[in-house]
User: What shape does this take?
Amino acid sequence: MVVLPTMLLSAGHHPGDSGASHEDLTEHDIARGICFYLMGEIGRIPSSNQLPVVVVPTDMLSSKIVWVNKYYKLVGGPCFAVEVHVNSFHDGNVRGVSCYHAGIHGGSMQQEMAKAVVASVARPSWPSRGTKTQAESNLKSLGWISKTAMPALLVEIGFITNRTQREFMRSDSGQQALGIRLARGVEDAAVFMHSFTNDDKPGGEAMIRGEFSGKDWREGRAQDGLDDDMTALPLPRGRGGDSDEDTTEAMKLQVFPPGVKVTGEV
Ligand SMILES: [Zn+2]
Assistant: This one.
């Protein structure tokens, strides 16, 4: 049994700011549905690998970032963060799946992880739009990627502005199909990260160190000055207390090994 890096999973946005929408359908609702089915599928995949998953409590992005960095600081170990979003564009013909990452083009670990995610979701009718660095996003920098202390992926799973994709994502069966596809993708991404971070593998450590000098998750410390802010910021709602011990305990409860049915936050 190979224990893969822990995935910190977040459904993009939150009820107070639910992202892109079409009539009564919101990006956040779609993302939650897909994450729900993704979690169920991870418990079912017959695999020699164990992919631990931690559900990031629903909250504002800034609070989610603090939460995942605090999780990493307290629990440690290799982990990666995945947030599910739904895209929108003024041209309703545009459709497909893409994934943002913090790596560089040309075979970085994070780009390879993003490629695995895109490949798992893409179909001829649901085309791949490829992987992108955060610098290629409209915002030039994505908090989920730049302020998290571990490798992070942001999946734009489909377009709410494309009628066919929207209706698929609106349906329960569509969310389930996408959750199942994405489950394979994140496991592939975790396997890839595991192969890179395995110290037995020649060159692996050097590649990581070189690439993530600004995001050194191996050192177990959040970057970007978030450490200083952590004690001042409350944990997401529903977490017990502010003491590190309580927090660690509460967070452990959110780790679901394969086979466990999930009725949690996503
Ligand atoms: Zn979004």
Notes: The domain at 2-256 is CATH 3.40.630.40 (Aminopeptidase).
